[in-house]
Amino acid sequence: MSYVLVAHGTRKQRGVSLIGDIAAAVSATLDRTVHVAFVDVLGPTPAEVLGARAGEPAVLVPAFLARGYHVAVDIPDHVEASGHPDVTVTPALGPDPQLVRALVDRLVDTGWRPDDAVLLAAAGTSDPGALRDLHTTAAWLSATLGSRVELAFAATGEPRIADAVAAARRTGRRVVVASYLLSEGLFQDRLRASGADLVTDPLGTHPGVTRLIANRFVRAKVSGLSRVRSR
């Protein structure tokens, strides 16, 4: 069985390397190779990776923190284009309690204090289901920290991160941005340039992310969560 981790893609080599590091950590956890594919910016594409491994069943895990266009449209299109006859596609990674725990760890490591104003910063989406996923994560993080966490966006959606930081600063508190991104890239750069006092690193190779992805592969292998067959 082939295991494939599908990420968005970025022109920043540091971001590409980080996705490779995530796949390597999952590979070590499962003691089997996890291949990497990208739906945008660079290759190999999921269609290319699956097409090269059409002789055995495949499990594909979308490395996205919420559902959205890439998960709902791009990935199924790539599966169909690959001609692979037996592919199981898991849900997106989020929302999930493991990601909330990883966010809290990143906040603590960055120097967060309980009286800080915290913004959960996502890439952004126009997909209603993905927005619900992001608001769910913000609500869970609020409950964990014991104070309200506002949602902001690096790209699509309102408020944009720089505007949200400016609004939070008017409260007189320190402003901390919790990056709800998986890897380095343009969006993480925007968070760091937002004017916040502290910005956490992407979730990246946090052990909780590794465990979550590994669990997705194992569960899919056992139960076949959502099988996509080429027509």
From TrEMBL:
Gene3D superfamilies: 3.40.50.1400. GO terms for molecular function: lyase activity. It holds the Pfam family CbiX. InterPro entries: CbiX-like, Sirohydro_Cobaltochel/CbiX. This is Cobalamin biosynthesis protein CbiX. It comes from Mycolicibacterium duvalii.
